[in-house]
Amino acid sequence: MPGFTSTPHALYQQVKLHVKKHINSGEWTPGTMIPSEHQLVDQLKVSRMTVNRALRELAQEGIIKRVAGVGTFVADKKPQSSLLMIANIGDEIHQRGHQYRCEQLYLQRESASLPIAAALGIPTGQSVYHVICIHYEEELPVQLEDRYVNPIMVPNFINQQFNAQQTPSRYLLNQLPVEEMEHIVDATLADEHQAEQLQITHQEPCLILMRRTWAHENIVTYVQFLHPSSRYRLGGRMKVTPEHAAG
């Protein structure tokens, strides 16, 4: 390919850029089968090993999907949840025209452990509500929700049955105005039980979003959302004022 090796990028990176260019331009849309390794070798005049590494990394990044014995396809774009607002995952999924389902796995009253009590700003051992839900997009688990709620703030939370029509987030937002929220994002690996619930291997990297919300100067809820990194991403966009433009 003329000029292919004239850039400072390694050859496998140039192959990646070549594939991304076709995807980003819209020429190769989600679900489209892209040229095979053999075809890319012939087109780009690079080694099979170089093409294999490029496609392997693109698959790990969730940009393409390789199906053994069938071919390589452009992957569906990973959904992105905003860090700047309390988004309802069901609304996000419906906006993409996909099927959404919420399954409640657990809802009980418990005594707050030291970490949970600290997160909610309450005494250790005080009663809390604990709910675990799994959220599905097209019957594929995309989020595991592990939430603790202060019963003093939302006493009827324990009496709810959560599903696609009424998620914990939607219920809480309908009960109390959110005056303040805190978001922390980290990288992690799912434990064996979480991996089973999300239908992933326990070696797959995950993103964990930890959120606390306040109402009437009290912490209402502390929740951890676990996302397989291959299926979801977190991000946001906001206006920047001069005093916040630090770089």
Index terms:
single chain; 247 residues; alpha+beta; Arc Repressor Mutant, subunit A; Chorismate lyase; 6-stranded antiparallel sheet; 7 helices; disordered C terminus
Overview of this protein structure:
The chain is α+β, with helices and mostly antiparallel strands and 247 residues long. The chain folds into two domains: 11-74, Winged helix-like DNA-binding domain superfamily/Winged helix DNA-binding domain (Arc Repressor Mutant, subunit A, Orthogonal Bundle); 80-235, Chorismate lyase-like (Chorismate lyase). The chain is 26% helix and 32% strand. The strands form three sheets. A six-stranded antiparallel β-sheet has the order 4-5-6-9-8-7. Strand 1 (64-67) and strand 2 form a beta hairpin. Helix 1 crosses helix 3. It is elongated. The two termini are 38 Å apart.
What topology emerges from the helices and strands here?
Elements lengths: L10 H14 L12 H8 L3 H13 L3 E4 L3 E4 L5 E3 L6 H7 L4 E12 L2 H7 L6 E11 L2 E10 L18 H8 L4 E10 L2 H7 L6 E11 L2 E11 L4 E3 L12
Parallel strand pairs: 3-10
Antiparallel strand pairs: 1-2, 4-5, 5-6, 6-9, 7-8, 8-9
Helix pairs in contact: 1-3, 2-3
